[in-house]
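Many introductory courses stop at the sequence. We go one step further.
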Amino acid sequence: MEQINGSVQMECALLYTFLEASRDCNFKQQLQSLQNHGIVSCLKGSYCYDDEAELQTDGNRGGRMQNGEPGFDPEVNEVVRIIAAQLAEIGDQFDRDINARVVNDLVQHFRNENLSREEITRHMSGAVEELARAIPSDMEQEKARLVLAMVLTKKIANTMPSLLHRVFSTTVNYINQRFHNYVVRMLHR
């Protein structure tokens, strides 16, 4: 499996912490293995933004390095935990309304080794969009879609824990591609 790189650390920490905070998470042992295998090494802390750093070409601020690794800031780590817990509460409400067929279809796609990451991501995106249509309009749509992606991750891993590494990696990249700016705004409010 491909290692998750430093550019998705916030998404990685947010998803991992969301899964830890979620109710009915039946794959806690496999979740811990993500950390043991270095897949979520970002959880030693959270990415530490340097307020004095220049903007990078991608519009983000540069981060500090400690021993060649991204620096970590306990204050940001606490913000991630608080936000993940809030999103997990919303996710627990969404959980009961997600049709088992949607989850089972995604499980089959994740099990299919012949599908590329892009194809699986398209299926995940389609499922999120389908489910988002049923979300009340008073909820911020970006937040609803972000939470739905994370809840689907939990439900897929609950259905087949052996898929956790693949679904976690795919979801982190999906969140990074579609919701990175939203995640940054949430963490810096």
